[in-house]
Write a structure and sequence with these properties.
Dihydrolipoamide Transferase, alpha+beta, OB fold (Dihydrolipoamide Acetyltransferase, E2P), seven-stranded mixed sheet, Chloramphenicol Acetyltransferase, single chain, four-stranded antiparallel sheet
Length: 504
């Protein structure tokens, strides 16, 4: 008779509330063992491989690949009775008229040592020992022998209630245990097979592909997926032949990328006159970030039209200097320098709001964010300590940052820790906008398109090159006079670039 057990999506120790099902490594009808890797999930932080807490036969995959599910949602059903029946019917364990000294899987005959068991049986026995010890430490069982209770092996955070996202309660070393000395960890954790190889997983055919998977950490696997690199085609340069981030990036820059072919992605669903595109990855992260920013920080946006004729001329002259050889300085370089000077003159614009501590954090360093439109969505990498760079160094950093972002190779460290941002909406042919703050920052400057327009210059009407600047700021931190002063200073420096030198 079938005895089905469901495995619910656990909190894998990252405090996640949901995850995407990326790849199933088993299918209905496959035999699975405790701690066999059965599925790969993607959280907001990394790719994670989940082991199975049961031994038995897969009855059903409850969630298809590509779907996002909440923590606590059942994702697979395993018939544990089928696994027990298969073990009981193994050759030499119950056939009429025959007898064998070989123990059944997960059983240890009296007097036998664990070392004498097959590797898969030893794993099951170890898991049973962990489970029994965990049961003995339940409240009300102080020091008493463990009753015979069927319990599944426990993964980190497994067993959360549906819809709950609160942290687990931490237990002391003696909590609920009685004896205390040499007690179990706060959570019983199923013993881990060394590398989830076919041998430790029981040797069934479904595990062969999983065991042959290249050795790489979850962030490296995610990077490879993002860049379209097939890890199976790479030779790792890391410890024990593991594939590193550098290996993936080198492959993405070389011919291996073309050989690997496109990465499987969630395909749009077209029905009649509508198209539905799954929200994944960068798009999902961006949506959450701008929504949180828009409904947390009270935005104010101010606009200023300025004559940037001299700035455009200065950018052109910089290209002829030997210090800028190969860099092609753009007007954005001088906008960035002007904002850095304005931050030095008005430090409060480079700050953040700490809601928990009810403090304003003024940062005496500038990690300058540059919004970049990429094929994966909007990214805002930042130049670390931009305030320390000379103009040629700032030009080189801007060039490298935008090129890396458009190639999809921005490292996660460059996407975190920004303090103030510039968005160049002019490249899209628009005059201005009301930019949304990057979460954790107090200001963002939008640089509109530069175009010829009639302008009063030195008392006479002339055709000049004009742009519109828009500064959005967090009104909890930045009052109108401060925001206006910053915007006015940036405009004055772009009208007369010599002010950048005078005010630096």
């Amino acid at each position: 008779m079938a005895e089905l057990k469901q495995f619910r999506l656990p909190d894998v120790g990252e405090g996640l509330t949901e995850a995407d099902i990326v790849t199933w490594h088993v299918k209905p009808g496959d035999k699975v063992t405790v701690n066999q890797v059965i599925v790969e999930i993607e959280t907001a932080k990394s790719l994670v491989e989940l082991p199975c807490p049961f031994e038995g036969v897969v009855s059903d995959l409850l969630v298809p690949e590509g779907q996002t599910v909440d923590v606590g949602t059942p994702i697979i059903a395993v018939d544990v009775a089928a696994g027990a029946d298969a073990a009981a019917g193994a050759p030499g364990t119950g056939a009429a008229g025959s007898h064998s000294d070989a123990p059944a899987a997960g059983k240890t005959p009296a007097g036998a040592s664990p070392a004498a068991q097959p590797e898969g049986a030893a794993l099951a026995a170890a898991s049973a020992a962990v489970t029994a010890d965990s049961a003995a430490r339940e409240p009300g069982m102080h020091g008493s022998p463990a009753p015979k209770i069927e319990r599944q092996a426990v993964l980190v955070g497994y067993g959360v209630k549906l819809g709950t996202t609160t942290r687990r309660t931490r237990k002391g070393g003696n909590a609920g245990g009685g004896a205390g000395a040499g007690g179990m960890p706060e959570q019983a954790v199923a013993p881990q097979a060394p590398a989830a190889t076919p041998a430790t997983a029981g040797g069934n055919g479904a595990d062969t592909a999983a065991g042959a998977r290249p050795l790489a950490k979850p962030p490296v696997r995610k990077l490879a997926r993002d860049l379209g690199v097939d890890l199976a085609r790479l030779t790792g340069s890391g410890p024990e032949g593991s594939i590193t981030r550098d290996d993936v990036q080198a492959a993405a820059a070389g011919p291996a990328t073309a050989e690997a072919g496109p990465v499987p992605v969630a395909r749009p669903s077209v029905t009649g006159m509508e198209e539905r595109i799954p929200v994944r990855g960068v798009r999902k992260h961006t949506a959450a970030a701008v929504t949180a920013s828009a409904f947390t920080a009270p935005h104010v946006t101010e606009f200023l039209q300025v004559d940037v004729t001299e700035t455009m001329s200065a950018a052109q002259r910089l290209r002829d200097l030997p210090e800028f050889e190969g860099l092609r300085p753009s007007p954005l370089l001088l906008v960035a320098r002007a904002l850095l000077v304005a931050v030095a003159r008005h430090p409060m614009i480079n700050s953040s709001w700490d809601e928990a501590a009810q403090e304003i954090v003024v940062k005496h360093y500038v990690n300058l964010g540059i919004a970049a439109a990429t094929g994966r969505g909007l990214l805002v990498p930042n130049i670390k300590n931009a305030h320390t760079l000379a103009l040629p160094g700032l030009a080189a950093a801007l060039s490298a940052l935008t090129a890396t972002a458009r190639e999809g190779k921005t490292p996660p460290a460059d996407l975190a820790g920004g303090t103030v941002t510039i968005t160049n909406v002019g490249v899209f042919g628009v005059d201005a906008g009301t930019p949304i703050l990057t979460p954790g920052e107090a200001a963002i400057l939008a640089f509109g398109q530069v175009k010829q327009a009639p302008w009063v210059h030195e008392g006479a009407l002339a055709v000049r090159q004009v742009t519109t600047l828009a500064l959005s700021f967090d009104h909890r931190i930045v009052d109108g006079d401060l925001g206006s002063a910053v915007l006015r200073d940036v405009g004055a420096m772009l009208t007369d670039p010599l002010r950048m030198i005078a005010w630096s």
